Queue: 4 jobs
Job 1
Amino acid sequence: MGVSYFAVATSLIGLVGDYLFDDRMLKDRTATDKVAAEISHLYTSGQADKLQPILESHGGDMNGRLMLLDETGKVQLDSFSQLNGSRLELPEVISILSMGKTADYGVHELTGDGQRTWLDYLKPYNPNSEWVSYCSSALTKNGVIYGVLLYSAPVEDMMQRLSSLQSRMILYFLLAAVAAMVIALFFSRVLTKPLATLTRSIQRMGRGDFSVRVPVKGSSEIRRLSETFNTMSEKLEMLDTSRNQFVSNASHELKTPLATMKILLEGIIYQPEMDAELRTEFLTDINREIDRLNSIISDLLTLVSVDSKAMRLKRTTFSLAQVITDTARLLQPVAERNHQELKLVINDKCEMYADCAKLTQVCYNLMENALKYTQEGGSIRVRLIRSGRDAVFTVSDNGPGIPKEDQAHIFDRFYRVDKARSRDTGGTGLGLSIVHQMVLMHGGSISVESEEGAGSTFTVELPIHQG
């Protein structure tokens, strides 16, 4: 920032310096060219006696010194009458006599180390130095240079103004730079403090602390960043909690059938004289627990496959109405055993272009759940309609319903509203989660509406995508 301020200051001072020098040069050149035009015919006609008064008069009016030099650079006339006969080897004279210029201008420091230009205002001004400007104009006849009119004048006042301007501008820019740095540091602190807090929070999160939150304040960008971080942190915390809960539930679900089988097997081992009928009952229970264990493992593998994106849809064209009818036929014996009514209302065949096996599992799980959790003698109503380009499949029952606080978690893995009852009926808490994932894979949606004591309704909307 300091470099940029210095560059700006130098540029501005340079512009002002250019203006001052250009203005002075224009005035001196205009005046010198006017005098050169006036004396040119007198000089060429040999009327030298008339030139001296003219030079003295115009030199006084111009507050400077006028000298007439011949083609060799020798002074023929001097308004101060001091350098007559002297040869001047000034750059402003040489540029006309040797290089063919018609006019030139320069500034010199007489007590210094030679010629200097206006750029030297960047150096400290020396009040003891004598500054003088030289303005030269060619005297020509028929395109041939035969002399030079040289005008010199002191320019200490201009150099003093430049030095004063330099000092003031440098002071102003230093003050501005200091003020800008103070303001920048203040705002930088204000802006970086939330970022530093956010960085520390991210580091804590990297160490596994997902409960960290950052205060939401500051500008709109910082506020949005903080809000986004807190949202991400909450989701990660929920994900970590769900993961821990999932591991705990999975371990418990796998341990339960194993523990049951171990007890039953120990009974068989340590009672060699066990009654044959009791032994058969024990083995039947073991076989049932093995089936339960196999079901849990299959469901877990299904979810892992979905999570890892390894599961792919094998789309074919089929009738969703036929799938629902076939599933109802399979579950009809269960309904009859429990004296339940399983009623189908199908308004459209809903020819689908989807994965038949996965949607069969969706239908089976929802209808089996309705039968499983509806009291004996209850009724289950399955309905299929077509709504635009979607198939809408609903399963309603008049069972105990789902408490409102549990409805948001009904599709979570291993989540059960009535854990004791679900174990009695063989539930693992994975069925609805699998249904949810498979519906999402098809680009559909699933929702639940329920009221305690009035039953539940699961609604699945699936895009038909006819092939």
Job 2
Amino acid sequence: MGFALAPTAVAEGYRVEAFAKVGSTNALALERAQAGDPGRLWLVSKRQESGRGRRGRAWETPEGNLAATLLLVPEFELKTSATLGFVAGLSLADALDAVVPGKRISVGVDGGTPLGGGRFELKWPNDVLADGAKLSGILLESAMLGEQRYALAIGIGVNVVAHPEGTPYPTISLQALGATCDAETLFLALSDAWVENSRLWNEGRGLDAIRRRWLERAAGLGSEVAVQVDGRVVRGVFETIDEECRFVIREEDGNRISIAAGDVHFGAVASSRG
């Protein structure tokens, strides 16, 4: 089976290009935009050789894993597009539910006690967890095109058959969880779920509905948390994400802090990280 779009995605005008291997699907997407591609283009591969995650970190995609990037050339403001990472996370979680039905996932954040009741969980801002470990990462990148237009690349990497070793955080793959789906099957479900969630998001007008859905899957909600922000550590309880999808911590004295970007650690890891 090759990579293919769900009928719902085809009906909405999305396209797909598949590659046996690629350097970076995000980089390729932005190159396509600079060359005039109108967007709504998925670029997918089962082998990515120079992928990257947040803050320039490497993201390995060995043969059989999924590297997928959706290129958009939107009309809405660049600030609004930042919340599409939450749409992407929800879409991937929905797709995983569809292709791994009834899977008994013991989800615990940062290797701690399971908190999620057996579901794939979303870790702020852009990870999907399973069995307490990172299964997927999402990276949004943009490029200006001139005349106040811009391109947006929404990159999604999923550990389907293999996961990296020696990382500072636990990782896992679908295969290690006992799932039998392949990258093509997962992408088909992802392209369908993206249509549904992007409709709900509705160019930012439906962000509150996305936020509520995201919170239903949030890893570590209500638990002890430490967030590394600009070289310092903020500690407290993960209370919610606010209307702008910022991470809200309630400190011991009751003070609430909203964080726009940072590295999150939960549970026992939160207590030990300094």
Job 3
Amino acid sequence: MKLTREERADILIQALPYIQKYNDKIVVVKYGGNAMINEELKEAVMGDIVLLSLIGVKVVLVHGGGPEITEMLGKVGKKSEFVDGLRVTDKESVEIVQMVLAGKVNKNLVNLLQNKGGKAIGLCGIDGHMIRAKKADERLGFVGEVTDVNVAPVLDVLEKGYIPVISTIGYDTDGNVYNINADTVAARLAGELKAESLISMTDIVGLLRDKDDSTTLIPKVYVSDVMKLIRDGVISGGMIPKVNCCIEAIRRGVKKVFIIDGRIPHSILIETLTDEGIGTMFVSGNHI
């Protein structure tokens, strides 16, 4: 359906309060899942990020790249193993992870953003000693737990008008490199940057009261509700660490955290620039 000029103008006017609210504010987007694999969705996401940047939102893009890592490991004859949802990463594997994330995936995203008319610079956690880490668990090998974050490189890039595109590789002072979960890095970075919001793109519609019924979406969750939701089994399995990252960001000063369905075209714009929103929003405080 083709919109009239008046309808287009009305849409822009309705978005104005949200544009004003987010202007010159930092928004961290954690990008992964199907939206990263499907080329059409990837194009839409990059377009959304460029649009937000052009209207004055300081977008920081933190990305994963699990499928690409699995594919490359397979090509060199290494089978991917997981413990509690985290990839077991030996010395050889972490070199491949670094190559794929900080090289192929990161630079492809930078190129896409620039082809959409944006300005982007790719970084990884080693650059500027941004993300310091240590071994999270001996069973996992070189999977990192964040110990310190230096946001100066991110702020420098934002100040120059670029979109920082960050791959989640960490370092330690012994010269080791670590593969770090993208949700963990996005939450910590958002907190350190005192971001207005953190948007986590996933392959689900949000937090569901009944995981098998998409109509049971919980649109708003207070930090104080989370433990009860875990006890009740509403938050379970792989959602527990994802939600814990959301809570970590809130506790570090992020005002709002969203889990949204990255499979929906323009879900970032729907969340940030409309009344309806999408997915589940996490906020501080108590449920009244």
Job 4
Amino acid sequence: MILQDEYNKKLVSPEEAVKVVKSGDRIDWSSFNGQPVLLDQALAARKEELSDVHIRGASSQRQVACVEQDQKREHFIYSSWHMSSYERKLHDKNLCNFNPVAFHERSQYYETGHVAPDVGMMQVCPMNKYGYFSFGPQANSVYTILKHSKKVLVEVNPIMPVALGGRDEICHISEVDYVVENPGIPLIEVKPATPSEKDIAIARHIIKEIHDGCCIQLGIGGLPNTIGQMIAEAGIRHLGVHTEMLADSYVDMYEAGCIDGTRKATERGKISYTFALGTQRLYDFIHMNPICAISPAAYINNPNVASQNPNLISINSCLEIDLFSQVSSESINGRQISGTGGQWDFAKAAYMSKGGKSIIAMSSTFKKKDGTLGSRIVPTLGGGTIVTLPRWSVHCICTEYGMVDVKGASTWERAERLISIAHPDFREELIKEADRMKIWLPSSKIK
């Protein structure tokens, strides 16, 4: 069959496409800009016909119609692999549950049958002349969802950037059951956060660890943007990129001549990533750009793959850390904030990398609702707080007061080093608590 004929045969309205969904079905859909919009709305309109339909999303940046129109969860049950701020608010209303996962393992859940979707949905780029749809700037686990779904519905967005890649970033028209077209729904844009004074102070400590030839992995926010600017100003060269998320700061570094990927071991010369989230400038940069290579998280986040790159520097943030050096990056006192994502993946990969270093960065304090300060370094994590990184996996911790290495350190050494980078106003109390917990030496000195 001629490819365009097959496309036309499968082209239907959103309302017609979602008729494949039955009560009791399990639906998985793509995340970020790949989240279906018209299909979600059409499915929500069918709510009175359906019950016990489970939907798994991730990091939703848009409202989910199936949730918004079913506030009692009588028809749809929504869960997320990684909470966005929107999903966090749904979770607070008991309208969204969390699926714990280390990002590199997610595809394996489908492969081994732990997760079995009936219907897969995703926004994609327009079909090319060879019959292929690009998944756009989010590979994640999209192809695995498609491969293991009984029915596959794609929603074509004509303005979705085409992300060239290394593997599993496209699907063929023969793998799709129904095609829906949207008029060009605007892409989600996340503008770089303005760095705080604390971000700048933390970045000054971290930049000392980055040198010519390093391979970097950064998250999102004011701190990574600041680090990117400092890298450009410092004239660091021959950097490689092997990262879960691609953000605008990488474009800054590339345009400043810092990134060429020539010293990478995997995908030499390429900017390797599994999803991109930023401004239109970032999406324009990745569109049909052969220097960028998108691949699924099962590859990018796999510690055995990422660690092949020498001098891998992984920089991520957290919510709080206790004196045992247990890191919480996803919840506080039972409230789900985000998710594990790729933090464990890259903490492990960076330490496995020859010359690599995993850095967890955070400001030493946060502002409470009453305006007073609280310490992010605490004696022990609160009840219901999830441990994202167990203490054995933690390498370096950085605040505005400095950076400490806790690998191989005893419990009292960890406590001493962490207290040394806590806010001065909280050090005395932390010392008392460390002593009470029998992880303190009377001879210890904190400057």
